[in-house]
Design a protein that fits this description.
Elements lengths: L2 H11 L3 E2 L8 H10 L3 E4 L7 H10 L10 E4 L1 E3 L2 E2 L11 H6 L3 H17 L4 E2 L13 H10 L23 H17 L5 E3 L2 H9 L12 E3 H8 L5 H5 L7 H6 L4
Parallel strand pairs: 1-2, 2-3, 3-6, 7-8
Antiparallel strand pairs: 4-5
Length: 257
């Protein structure tokens, strides 16, 4: 590979912020950092254990010979979207702070969050400057719908990850891997079921459950199914048995049918 080609590759890599599994850089991640030099990395709960581990991790993600430091990012928004564990100070969601009507309160909370993130080597916080509840693609909307229907929503790091639906025919093995990660992460988060607003995601997650032979499969519901159930539909079993993973047993256990 010529030097110019390598330079172009790394220049393109600077446009990307990437996530990864685990609490320390493994060989795959180190290879990616060396060959593509992404501009930054984003951390999720799956990467974070305690302040000492987080500081070791963020230092290990940097390249001391690089001209620019890698941007280390996180979603430390407040409320349900809170990635860092205790003893980091938990704060309510931005809307709650805003409803108090005190600019000084919001400023003080943001200052504490920023200082704590900086202390463990995190440079960028994707905290909301403005959240629009009218955005149908905003995950907050789905959460509020499910909570209004009586469900308990669990925050988890794969919440907005894609199942790879566009590759269902061309590269099903990729879709199976992506879907499997989402289902496995839901089990680790303690979820009883996954509810999707995307029909392709619902199908892929339902039919491509991990074949580990261990824990039971996770029921995958389309959000309108849960809506119908919450609104008193009496024929849930009639469509539930069309799923690859029949959710009827779960709904019966929860005394919903």
């Amino acid at each position: 590979m010529t030097r110019s080609t390598e330079s172009i590759r790394k220049a393109i890599g600077q446009l990307f912020i990437v996530g990864f599994d685990g609490t320390e850089p493994d060989k795959d991640l180190r290879d990616l950092l060396r060959h593509y030099s992404p501009g930054g990395l984003i951390l999720f709960k799956r990467n974070l254990e305690d302040p000492d581990q987080i500081l070791r991790l963020t230092r290990g993600l940097q390249d001391p010979e690089a001209l620019l430091p890698r941007l280390v990012c996180v979603d430390q928004e407040g409320g349900r979207v809170w990635r860092l564990p205790l003893p980091f100070t938990p704060f309510p969601e931005a809307q709650t702070l805003g409803n108090a009507g005190l600019d000084s309160l919001a400023h003080s909370a943001a200052k504490v969050i920023a200082e704590q993130l900086a202390a463990v080597g995190i440079h960028c916080n994707f905290a909301p400057v403005l959240d629009l509840h009218t955005n149908p693609e905003n995950p907050v909307i789905m959460d509020e719908i499910l909570e209004a229907l009586g469900a308990e929503v669990i925050d988890w790091s794969y919440k907005v990850d894609c199942c790879g639906g566009s590759l269902s025919i061309a590269a099903p093995e990729i879709v199976e891997k992506l879907s499997g990660k989402i289902v496995d992460a839901s089990k680790e988060a303690g979820a009883d079921a996954i509810v999707s607003a995307c029909g392709i995601c619902q199908l892929n997650l339902d039919m491509r459950q991990p074949k580990d032979g261990g824990s039971p499969p996770v029921p995958i519901l389309y959000f309108s199914e849960l809506s119908a159930l919450a609104l008193g539909s009496k024929n849930f079993r009639e469509w539930a048995n069309k799923h690859f993973v029949d959710p009827s047993n779960l709904m019966q256990k929860l005394e919903l049918i």
